[in-house]
Amino acid sequence: MSDDDKSRHDFKNQLGIILGFSEILLAEAKVGDPRRGDVEEIHKAATAALDLLARLFPVGADTPR
Amino acid sequence: MNQGQPIAILAVDDEPGVLALVRRCLADDERVTLVEASSGKGALEHVAKGAAFHLLIADLRMPDMEGDEVARQVRALDPDIKVLYLTSHADRLFDAKQQLWADEAYLDKPFTRGGLREAVALLLFGRTTL
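Predict the joint structure of the above. Result:
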């Protein structure tokens, strides 16, 4: 694995952890829980970061810019 | 195997947060016994000690050993074990691994609790619910 691949893999791993746990919290949050909106923002931001990662550093690109 | 019986799972990933997520997704099921390893070598040590598992969940790319090499060595000791690979880029999966064997599947990261549980259920029971 190249250094770029490893960086992409590691970064995606971290986003996956944020997404995975926030998805679980959202699934378990009771209706009316005031923290639900906060977790939704975390989930949205992590999803956006994942999209950004895919656009900026697509798999197969030799050198992320 | 039957759905009611105990399920022994060995999970290996060099990223502690991914292991924590796997634990969160599966360990609240009282049938599941989850053993975790942070390296391929660590996973092999569990199997070499004689521990029996129904399923190996393995990160495909780890610093000390690729996940499919871990699976190959685990299978030498336990031919019946099923394997679920976690991969960050499924479109490159087959660069590293030419084919999936029977009783193997992969799940792309990031994964959801539902996705992981469904993949585990499909491998172990041939149905989508644990």
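Chain A has a mean pLDDT of 88.
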